[in-house]
Design brief:
The complex is a heterodimer of chains A (about 210) and B (about 180). By secondary structure, chain A is mainly beta. Helices cover about 5% and strands about 45% of the residues of chain A. Chain B is mainly alpha-helical. The longest helix of chain B has about 40 residues. Classes of the chains: A mainly beta (about 210), B mainly alpha (about 180). Chains A and B meet through strand 5, strand 11 and strand 12 of A and strand 1 and helix 3 of B.
Chain lengths: ~210, ~180
């Protein structure tokens, strides 16, 4: 009986879930359980994948960040987690991307608000907990990382700055931290100086998490 | 009659002149019969759509892990604290030496007993100063040391050893001084 139940559950999980991924943008999948093997992508030319941690232990990864590389095409993604195997069908397109929460224990904070930025300006990003190894940008040609704290300072892994390189463009920034994985949407445009956000405090905008 | 004939011939020649001239080879062929100029048509080149630059890998930066950073920070901080402790003890030792020099100066005078008492007082004061400095150093750095008890103990032992060595040197010098004066 148990075997039958397990089989049924596995079959449910193996059913392909469709997910839209846009070029130069991020799609997040929060599995709610730990990823136990390296995720497999059928066509790695279409997407890049980054397993990240939103937990205190930076080695425990339960969130997958998918970066779209092309405007069209589709591929399959297989992820083995503690809760079972997930089969996802990724559909690439120009500008529509989706995020997905699959488990109960979510560790993602997806901030839907678009943060306006101006070219050749920088913004301080404040994270409520230590950053878990990576800072990801869906289109790294648009923004750059700037270190503002000394390596030995306690806030070295909590505060940093981003500079804008391009005149205009939209991209996503993902900051995995011990307090969860944050995703923000950056919009670089020309215009008045007032349109630039000087400080991006991720702690104050966690309320809009999904 | 002849005149009329000449006029007629002249008129005929005038009217048919170019053709007959061309037939005689006086004029070049293109002039005689101009060919229609072909209009040059530019080939329409299809504008190729600019390929969008490839998207780079998303990792903007890879930061060190918490564990390695804490380990490095701890090692660096301990080194810094050790250096400060050595500096502090060195300056204390220098102060003690200057106090000793003063004691020597006083004791070298013929007033032996009075000089000895004064020298002992000075050394006691110097010891107290050293102890005070050591205590203040401990109070300041102790919380930082709590992360690594072993390192804290090693450093504290080293500091204590330096103090006792300085004190022993001072006492030996004092003994020499008093013996010399006797």
């Amino acid at each position: 009986m148990r075997i039958l139940l397990a089989l049924v559950l596995t079959c449910i999980q193996v059913q392909a879930i469709e997910l839209k991924v846009a070029r130069g943008r991020f799609s997040l999948i929060d599995f709610g359980s730990l990823i136990i093997a390296k995720p497999l992508v059928l066509n790695p030319k279409l997407v890049n994948i980054y397993p990240v941690s939103g937990l205190a232990n930076e080695e425990s990864q339960s969130v997958l960040v998918i970066q779209g590389l092309e405007e069209q095409g589709s591929t399959d993604l297989t992820v083995d987690t503690q809760a079972g195997i997930y089969q996802l069908h990724l559909v690439l397109n120009k500008d529509e991307n989706q995020d997905l929460v699959l488990g109960q224990a979510q560790r993602t904070h997806i901030i839907n608000a678009t943060i306006p930025l101006k070219q050749s300006r920088s913004s301080i990003v404040s994270v409520p907990a230590h950053i878990n190894r990576y800072i990801l940008a869906a289109d790294p040609s648009l923004v750059s990382y700037q270190n503002i704290k000394d390596y030995y300072h306690p806030d070295f892994l909590k505060v940093f700055a981003i500079g804008t390189n391009s005149k205009e463009g939209i991209t996503d920034l993902v900051v995995p931290s011990q307090a969860g994985v944050f995703k923000i949407n950056l919009s670089i445009k020309g215009g008045q100086d007032e349109d630039h956000t000087n400080i991006i405090d991720l702690a104050s905008i966690t309320s809009s998490s999904i | 009659m002849l005149q009329i004939l000449i006029v007629v011939i002249t008129l005929v020649c005038y009217c048919t002149g170019p053709i007959s001239a061309a037939s005689l080879g006086h004029l070049s062929k293109p002039e005689a019969k101009a060919k229609p100029v072909k209009k040059l048509r530019r080939k329409k080149v299809k504008k190729k759509a600019k390929p969008k630059p490839a998207i780079e890998a998303a990792i903007l930066i890879e930061l060190p892990s918490h564990k390695s950073l804490i380990a490095k920070r701890s090692a660096s901080e301990t080194q810094m604290i050790d250096q400060k402790a050595i500096d502090l003890l060195f300056s204390s030792s220098l102060k003690q030496n200057s106090e000793l020099a003063r004691a020597q100066k006083i004791a070298s005078k013929n007033f032996l007993s009075r000089g000895k008492e004064q020298a002992i007082d000075l050394i006691q004061n110097s010891k107290l100063k050293l102890q005070e400095q050591y205590q203040s150093w401990r109070a300041y750095y102790q919380p930082r040391y709590q992360r690594d008890q072993n390192l804290a103990q090693t450093s504290a032992n080293a500091a204590q050893k330096l103090i006792s060595m300085t004190n022993q040197t001072t006492l030996l010098e004092l003994e020499k001084l008093t013996k010399g004066n006797r």
